[in-house]
Amino acid sequence: GENVEQHPSTLSVQEGDSAVIKCTYSDSASNYFPWYKQELGKRPQLIIDIRSNVGEKKDQRIAVTLNKTAKHFSLHITETQPEDSAVYFCAASLPFSGSARQLTFGSGTQLTVLP
Amino acid sequence: EAGVAQSPRYKIIEKRQSVAFWCNPISGHATLYWYQQILGQGPKLLIQFQNNGVVDDSQLPKDRFSAERLKGVDSTLKIQPAKLEDSAVYLCASSRGTSGEKETQYFGPGTRLLVL
After folding, report:
1. Does residue A16 come out as left (phi exceeding 0), alpha (psi in the -120 to 50 range) or beta?
2. Between chains, do B56 and A49 touch, taking CB under 8 Å as contact?
3. Where would a tag sit more exposed on chain B, N or C end, judged by fewer CB atoms within 10 A?
4. How far away is chain B from the Cα of A79, in angstroms, using its nearest Cα?
C-alpha cells in the first residue's frame, strides 16, 4: 500500500510570512494529491488538490507543487493570517482495484500563525 | 448543497459493549468512505462503498467492525465488542465517483468515540 510522510509536524510563523509543508509518497501509481485543513474539533475540509498530470496549481494565497520523479509534493501558503491556524493534512490517492481508491493521509502539520 | 451528516456526534461506552454510527452522504454521491482518526494522526481508511457494494475493506478489522450501505445511500458502521484502542473519531466521507474530478471527498463532522 501507499505510505505518506509529512513534515514538519508543527510550524509557527509570523502573520504575513509564508508557510511551507512537505509530503513524500511511496507508490508511483498515486495520481491525485489533495490537501485538507482541519480546525480543532471540526471536519477536514479540502483546500486544494493536484493531479499527476500537472506540476503546480495555485488558488489565491495557496499553491501546491508536485514532483513526480522525486515523489514529493508541497503546500505553500503566502501572506499567512491567524485564521490559517489549523492542522493541515496531505494525502495521496492510489487506484486500488476496480473503482476503489485508497486515500492515504500524512500525519498532519499543526500550523500556528502568530499575530 | 447539504453536507455529509453523521450521528451521534459523541458516544461514550465501556469496553466490550457495542456501538453503531450512522452516515448520510451528500445527495447523488455514489461513493462512501469510513475513516478512523486517532488523536494526533491523519484519517485512516476503513472501508469504501460504491453504491451499495463494498469495493475495499482491506483495512477493516473484520473480527469486530462491520459496515453496510443497504440501499446505496445511508451507511452504518458497527463495532462489537469495542476495545479501548477503538477510541477515536470516526469520519464518514462521500464523493460523486472515483475518477477525475468526481473523486474529491467531502467529510462529515465525525463521531467522537470514547471507550472506557
Report:
1. left
2. no
3. N
4. 26
Q: Is A72 helix (H, G, I), strand (E, B) or coil?
A: strand
pLDDT one-digit tens code per residue, A6-53: 999 999 999 999 999 999 999 999 999 999 999 998 999 999 999 988
Q: What are phi and psi of B92, to 5 degrees?
A: -105, 140
Residues of B in Cβ contact (< 8 Å) with A36: 107
Cell of B85: 484502542
Q: Does B48 touch chain A (CB under 8 A)?
A: yes
Contact at 8 Å (CB) between A89 and B35? no
Could you tell me which of A57, A56, A47 has the C-alpha nearest to residue A89?
A47
Q: pLDDT tens across B12-38, in order?
A: 999 999 999 999 999 999 999 999 999
Pick the closest to residue B76 from B6, B9, B10 (CA basis). Answer: B6
φ, ψ (nearest 5 deg) of residue A63:
-140, 150
Contact criterion met (CB < 8 Å) for A46 and B108: no
CA distance B23 to A43: 14
On the CB side of B5, CA atoms within 13 Å amount to 7
Is there a contact between A21 and A8 (Cβ–Cβ < 8 Å)? yes
What was the pLDDT predicted at B1?
57
Q: Which chain A residues have a beta carbon less than 8 Å from that of B31? A: 99, 101
Distance CA B48, CA B33 (A): 4
Record: contact A96-B55, CB cut-off 8 A: yes
